[in-house]
Each structure stands twice: as structure tokens, then as C-alpha cells.
């Protein structure tokens, strides 16, 4: 959280302002967030009460209907793919690049069918997906590319910040992300008409600016909007988030050098155009259990973060052979990389790993 002296007066003001639901503060946060991610049109930035809600609406705007297929990745938090199910779609798994956990464009192209309505790519751990290749594939197929950038606030691709490369880009503002509003999500839409559609869908299918009496709901909508309280937190957090991102990146780049060449450990490799935000730091190791135990013995936490989604029963109908996922998931582990990791902490982590396991 931002410093108490900055955050609490702003929160106190909104809590006793008489308007704690969605109001001008939400619109202000959307505009300021749009500036941060260099959205081409601030009106194309929509806030939500969760990143999952933002993804669900993106899929609906993209035209996903019951029975339609969405090509996606199993290497992500489960809400990415549950949102496809929420929209009535069927998940089709593409394989991943075992060098970094991101979706593999060649596999995506092979999984397209006449029923494919969208491609959903995740920037795994803050490493931008191969967006140039994926954009070409989506364009050739005449379908939208949806980017789940939940891990990638502040990342860059081809010199531009995440948020400018896909038809729809979702950012998570959930509790543990680079920027948190306690919970929330943002959706950046390339097309202004898509954003207008999303703005209606997030509020029961109604235009909030139209008179409530006489309004007609033509399409089922949802209660997915953000409120002034969360938006106030977001506005204050935005003043500090670059420092948070910079610390993640500094720690990640330290590990890129400090952990290179260690026997039994492989570092992630990525698209040359990608500049990660290092939300997580992933390494691939031999004898993973021994590695985890060695670090735990030195007070260093590790994590697998998520179950590969293709093993969940809810996605049983989508099962597929995914050798890239098999290789990556059997060897990957995350080590601490966040803003809370000090210079001494990261040196301790690197020294411990260099000793072997």
C-alpha cells in the first residue's frame, strides 16, 4: 500500500463524501491508468471489480458465444480459462514454449478451426508473450487477440508498454499484483465501440448515463463495475507503482546475471522484443524437490504458483497432448523477486543457489 499519510486522507474523503459507488473518481482512475499504459484513447479504458470480470467482458465483446472455441494456454491462474467457460466458450489448449511458459504461436496456428472466435495469450510471470507473431495469426484468421497482462503491468514489447499490442488487454489489480486496489481489474480496448459495449455490459446491460426510467436492456449484463473506494486506492497507488515495478525489474535483472551458468538450473529465455516486468522469477531446475528443500532450509520461499489448468476436471473435455507444458511444468519453480526483496535478500538467494542442492 501507498504511504498512510497519502492514502488515508483520500480514503476518508471518499468514504464520507456521500458517493462510494461508481462516480467521477472511477472515471478519473480510468483516465490516469490509461495514461500509465499509454492507451491510445483514454475512453477505451474500463475498470472492473476484478480482472476475471474484465476478461469475461472482453470475451463477450469479442463475440464468444456458447459452443465457440477460444485458443488459450494452461500455464496461467485458473480465472483466465474459467472466464472462457463463463462466456459459454470451449477452451482449446495450445502448447507453450518450455523456455518461458508463454503460449507457442506455432501451436496456436495449428489449433485454429472455423469455430475459433478468439486467441487468449498470457504474459506468464510478467514476460510478454510473442505478441507480434500472435497478432499476425489473429489478423490472418480475422479474430481478436486478447492479452491477459495480469502479471505484466509495466512490461514492454517492441519498445511500447503492455496495453497497446492486442485488441483487448486485461490487467489485474488483485491484492498481490504490482498495483492493487484491494481487488479490481482494467480492460484496455483497441476499438472505441468495443469499449462502449463493455461499459454497458459491466452495468447490467444499461447505459449509466441514460435516464433510469425508460431505459431498455437489450443484452444481459453484469454487476462488474468498480467503485469510488477502490478507485481512490488506485489513484494513490498509481503515484508509487513505477517504483514497485522498477524494484521487481531490478531484482529480476540481478538474478538474470547472478544465476547464469549454474549447473542444473536453466533461466527463462524470451522474445527479443520483450522486456519483462518480473512479477515472478521463474527458473527450471533439475531435482526440484531438493532445490525447494535447500532454499527452505535457508528461509527462502519458493512456489509453483498455479496448477497447469489442463489437469482440472472442469476442463476435461479440452484434454490434449502438450509436450511443452509437460517439460516446463515438471521443472519450473518461482523464487522471490518482488519489491520486498532487498539487496541483501537477493544476494542471499543467489549465494544459496550457487552452492548447489
CATH architecture of the largest domain: 3-Layer(aba) Sandwich
CATH domain class of the largest domain: Alpha Beta
Oligomeric assembly: single chain
User: Mean of residue pLDDT?
Assistant: 96
How many domains would you count in the coordinates? 2
CATH topology title of the largest domain: Aspartate Aminotransferase, domain 2
Per DSSP, the total helix count is 12
For the report, how would you describe the main beta sheet?
7 strands, mixed
Radius of gyration: 21 Å
In the CATH hierarchy, what is the superfamily of the largest domain? Type I PLP-dependent aspartate aminotransferase-like (Major domain)
Structural class: alpha/beta
Measured distance between first and last alpha carbons = 36 Å
How many strands appear in the DSSP assignment?
Answer: 13
Strand portion, in percent?
A: 5-15%
Low-confidence stretches: none
SSE ordering: HHEHEHEHEHEEEEEHHHEEEHHEH
Amino acid at each position: 500500500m501507498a504511504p498512510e499519510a497519502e492514502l488515508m486522507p483520500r480514503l476518508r474523503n471518499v468514504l464520507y463524501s456521500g458517493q462510494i459507488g461508481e462516480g467521477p473518481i472511477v472515471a478519473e482512475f480510468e483516465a490516469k491508468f490509461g495514461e500509465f499504459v499509454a492507451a491510445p484513447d483514454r475512453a477505451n479504458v474500463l475498470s472492473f471489480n476484478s480482472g476475471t470480470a474484465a476478461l469475461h467482458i472482453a470475451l463477450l465483446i469479442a463475440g464468444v458465444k456458447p459452443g465457440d472455441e477460444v485458443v488459450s494456454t494452461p500455464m496461467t491462474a485458473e480465472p483466465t480459462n474459467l472466464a472462457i467457460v463463463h462466456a459459454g466458450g470451449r477452451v482449446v489448449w495450445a502448447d507453450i514454449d518450455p523456455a518461458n511458459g508463454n503460449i507457442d504461436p506455432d501451436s496456436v496456428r495449428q489449433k485454429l478451426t472455423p469455430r475459433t472466435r478468439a486467441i487468449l495469450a498470457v504474459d506468464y510471470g510478467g514476460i510478454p508473450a510473442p505478441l507480434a507473431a500472435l497478432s499476425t495469426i489473429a489478423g490472418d484468421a480475422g479474430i481478436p487477440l486478447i492479452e491477459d497482462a495480469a502479471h505484466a503491468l509495466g512490461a514492454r514489447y517492441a519498445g511500447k508498454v503492455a496495453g497497446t499490442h492486442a485488441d483487448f488487454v486485461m490487467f489485474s489489480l488483485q491484492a498481490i499484483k504490482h498495483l492493487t486496489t484491494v481487488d479490481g481489474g482494467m480492460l484496455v480496448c483497441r476499438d472505441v465501440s468495443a469499449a462502449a459495449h463493455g461499459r454497458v455490459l459491466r452495468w447490467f446491460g444499461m447505459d449509466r448515463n441514460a435516464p433510469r426510467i425508460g431505459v431498455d436492456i437489450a443484452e444481459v449484463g453484469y454487476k462488474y463495475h468498480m467503485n469510488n473506494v477502490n478507485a481512490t486506492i488506485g489513484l494513490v497507488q498509481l503515484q508509487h507503482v513505477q517504483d514497485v515495478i522498477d524494484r521487481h525489474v531490478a531484482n529480476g535483472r540481478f538474478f538474470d546475471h547472478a544465476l547464469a551458468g549454474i549447473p542444473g538450473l536453466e533461466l527463462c529465455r524470451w522474445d527479443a522484443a520483450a522486456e519483462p516486468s518480473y512479477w515472478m522469477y521463474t527458473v527450471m531446475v533439475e531435482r526440484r524437490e531438493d532445490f525447494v528443500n535447500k532454499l527452505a532450509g535457508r528461509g527462502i520461499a519458493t512456489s509453483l504458483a498455479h496448477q497447469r489448468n489442463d489437469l482440472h476436471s472442469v476442463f476435461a473435455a479440452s484434454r490434449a497432448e502438450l509436450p511443452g507444458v509437460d517439460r516446463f511444468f515438471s521443472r519450473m519453480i518461482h523464487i522471490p523477486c518482488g519489491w520486498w526483496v532487498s539487496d541483501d535478500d537477493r544476494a542471499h538467494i543467489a549465494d544459496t543457489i550457487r552452492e548447489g542442492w
